[in-house]
Amino acid sequence: MLHDLGPHALGEGLDLLESPSIIAVIATANTPLGFVAAHELLSAVRERYGQARLARVTVVTMGTRGRFRTKRLTEALHLTYGRGIASVIPYDASLAGGGRIPIHRLAKRTVTACDLLGRRVLASAAHHRR
Predict the structure, then answer these.
(1) What single-letter DSSP state applies at residue 59?
(2) What is the value of pTM for the model shown?
(3) Residue 21: CB partners within 8 Å, gap ≥ 6?
(4) Strands 86-89 and 57-62, how do they pair?
(5) What are phi and psi of 31, to 5 degrees?
(6) Local confidence band at 129 (pLDDT 50, 70, 90 cut-offs)
(7) pLDDT given for residue 130 in this prediction
(8) CB-CB contact of 58 with 89 (8 Å)
(9) With 0-12 CB in 10 A as exposed, 13-18 as middle and 19+ as buried, what is 82?
(10) Cα angle 129-27-3, degrees, rounded to a multiple of 5
(11) What would the mean pLDDT of 66-89 be, rounded to a whole number?
């Protein structure tokens, strides 16, 4: 399940984790406010379902225009909720426009980050399928 960390994440997004077959990939902005929202969601997951359910959640922070210093915020999420809980996709103008993604125009670092994210999600799905 891919869900935007918007106004419904703490409602229907959280409810979707009732199913033992759901792997949640939650997208938010790679900004201090995005990390606050991610922390609120992860805290709610832990409170409602326990620590073990966090293993089925990945937060993806998407780079935005501007320079935000979020390395410490990413580390804080990892320390609080687990090492693989967050992935960072750097800002890429090819992703900013929405709609169809011109893959041939993506920066190499974006492709590398997306590949790492894909491998993490596939590994999580394989692990939880057992």
Answers:
(1) E
(2) 0.83
(3) 128, 129
(4) parallel
(5) -135, 165
(6) low
(7) 56
(8) no
(9) middle
(10) 60
(11) 87
